[in-house]
Amino acid sequence: MAEILIRGAARVVTMNPARDEIASADVLIRDGVIAGVGQGLHTTGKVIEATGCVVTPGLVNTHHHLYQTLTRAVPGGQDALLFGWLKTLYPIWARFGPDEMRVSALIGLAELALSGCSLTSDHLYLFPNGARLDDTIEAAREIGLRFHPTRGAMSIGTSAGGLPPDALVEAEPAILSDMERVVAAFHDPAEGAMVRVGLAPCSPFSVSRDLMRETAVLARDKGVMLHTHLAENDEDIAYSLEKFGCRPGQYAEDLGWTGADVWHAHCVKLDGAEIDLFARSRTGIAHCPCSNCRLGSGIAPVRTMRDRGVKVGLGVDGSASNDAGNLIAEARHAMLLQRVANGADAMSAREALEIATLGGARVLGRSDVGSLVPGMRADIAIWDVSGIEAAGAWDPVAALLLCGPTRVRDLLVEGRQVVRDGQVATIDLPQVIRDQTRLAARLMG
Question: Contact at 8 Å (CB) between 180 and 222?
Answer without folding.
Answer: yes
